[in-house]
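Protein in question reproduced for absentees:

***
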Amino acid sequence: MPEIHLTTPLRDEDLEKLQIGDKVYLSGTIYTARDAAHQRLVELIEQEKPLPFDLKGQVIFYVGPAPTPPGKVIGSAGPTTSYRMDPYAPVLLAAGLKGMIGKGARSKAVIEAMQKYKAVYFAAIGGAAALISQSIKSAQVIAYEDLGPEAIRRLVVENFPCIVANDVRGNDIYRGFDYMGKK
């Protein structure tokens, strides 16, 4: 299987070529956010207020990095379980989000929203937090500093390793077929 290199922001035509199981290396800017930050982003969208960053074409990495050791740009940065973001993901996808990185299966509603808005879900390798952090070249808190490790950060990444877990057609690597039961 070939390695695929993508640069953010992601485009529909790039995502349409991806299939579950594809090994992807992301480069460019991605953002971190977990459930508390997701809730705040959705509230801003519902109130029609500006967001701390433009979601169009962007990728959110579900992570709360460990404290930054001296001489490093970020601490260990392993993915967190994604289902906690499922109540918020469809709203963010409708607002232009194109990719999410985490671990674990997604809900039917999130998979349907990914199909509708042409977005993908990438699985990052759990247990490899120190390795993943080596792909992160810079990290800056841009919103919700009060959330500590769950604050939104702008990360610049180079060859961030991940696997396509859900593609734009609704296929799901965790089930081996799309949620409608079609092979």
Remarks:
- The CA atoms of residues 52 and 141 lie 11 Å apart.
- The first strand starts at residue 3 and ends at 7.
- The longest helix spans residues 35-46.
